[in-house]
UniProtKB/TrEMBL annotation:
Classification via Gene3D superfamilies: 4'-phosphopantetheinyl transferase domain
Molecular-function annotations in GO: holo-[acyl-carrier-protein] synthase activity; magnesium ion binding
Protein name: 4'-phosphopantetheinyl transferase superfamily protein
Family (UniProt): Belongs to the P-Pant transferase superfamily. Gsp/Sfp/HetI/AcpT family.
Amino acid sequence: MNAERTRDVFVVVAPRGATDAADRGFLAAAAAWVLGVDPRHVSIDRTCDRCGGSHGRPVLNVPPSAKGRTLHPWPLHASLSRAADAVAVALTFAGPVGVDIESLAAVSRADFDRVAFGAAEQGALHFVPPADAAAARAALWTAKEAILKCTGDGLRVDPRDLTVTLTAAAPTGAATDAAAPHLAAWPGAGFPLDTMRLARFDPGPGLAGTVAVHTDTVHTDTVHTGAQLTVLQLTATDIRRRPGHRPAQSLGSTVR
């Protein structure tokens, strides 16, 4: 893979495996596809850097002999999410990444808003037409989960501490642009909020998905070519093929 691909964010969606080990194998295969190495050379460490448990965000390891054959920077950041019958992984060299998928049914249950959203978000949801309410809730929730996975905090942080807004539709009319998420407030963030880049993707019927990437570049409405990130959504079939150029959804058009 050439240098111009190093700011891509690869999102791969596939049927969920029968076991956690199967999903980890899928993540390893996707990472091998990006790196151009044999999947057997990729191992995954899930050690939590806070408590030492096995539930930490995935860290990819490749032997130096295999890594030396690749032509991109290191590390390759990774994240994994499951919902219903689907699994999604996100991979990028651009910075720490988090991905989350969720079913619209799960965010429609009673009392979900009270435990997931702050007052500003609940107020905004009040004005969403009933037909769009589940999709809006899922967009907000997956954005929060993706951010907290990206930072490594997970649900140790109260999700109500984060305020996420949904921007107006983009002129392209693409489904994933219908309500682009933006991290509007997080008092405990510890980093400039505009360095957290968010984009939605479509993980399948009845599901919503968001990917978050923490970069060292502050986003502005004018995205410079050198700082621009692109999201490429792939399938399990794609990663069985040799990496190459594919149509991409630009984060510059979906991140505020």
